[in-house]
Amino acid sequence: MVFQPIEKIKQEYTDKYVVVDGQRPELARFSDLVGRVKTVNMSGRALVEFMDYHLNIGWFDIDLDYLKVVDKPAPTEDKKPAAKKAAAKSTAKKPAAGGDEKKLSPLEMARMQGGAGKAASEKKTSTADILAAARGGSAPAAKSEPEPVAEASPVADAPAGKVDRTSMSVDAMVVYCREKDAE
């Protein structure tokens, strides 16, 4: 028996555009917005999704006494995200030549140069080289071979029992630890 009036209300309000009574303090945040009734719940309250409400897609549970059905609103300029995305992509890919255009960050410039550099040369450039080129500086000197690890054993050089690890380099500590583990 209770479900029949709710079903009638659901059919009447579902997919209708509504505005709220802005005089109610709890609904004042929706006073200038048009919402769309998604459904009516079993307690007789409308679940409304407000258009242009800070990109919020939530449904708000509002009593039907505070809603007024209105005509479908005209689409606004903000509802064309595809055109905005296309315009943003075309401006982002252009390098900044003059003062009128948006300046690219060093990372964006490095990305643009990195794609062109791969086709031009067989050698793979490092991230440090790309960033240095984007900043306008010269590329850092490339190391051809890693530095050799010190051959001197800190254990052999130290007196028996005591080793001063505070003055050791990292390489010397590694050698020391390996020799200690081998014992």
Describe the structure.
- The chain has helices at residues 3-13, 81-92, 106-120, 127-135, 154-157, 170-182, and strands at 17-20, 35-40, 45-50, 60-63, 67-70.
- It folds into three domains: 3-70, SH3 type barrels, CATH 2.30.30.30; 102-139, no CATH class; 153-183, no CATH class.
- It has a five-stranded antiparallel β-sheet.
- The protein is of the alpha+beta class and 183 residues long.
- The longest helix is centred in the middle third of the chain and has 15 residues, at 106-120.
- It is built from six helices and five strands; from the N terminus they run H-E-E-E-E-E-H-H-H-H-H.
Question: Which helices and strands appear, and what pairs or packs with what?
Answer:
Layout (H helix, E strand, L loop, with lengths): L2 H11 L3 E4 L14 E6 L4 E6 L9 E4 L3 E4 L10 H12 L13 H15 L6 H9 L18 H4 L12 H13 L1
Antiparallel strand pairs: 1-2, 1-5, 2-3, 3-4
Helix pairs in contact: 3-4
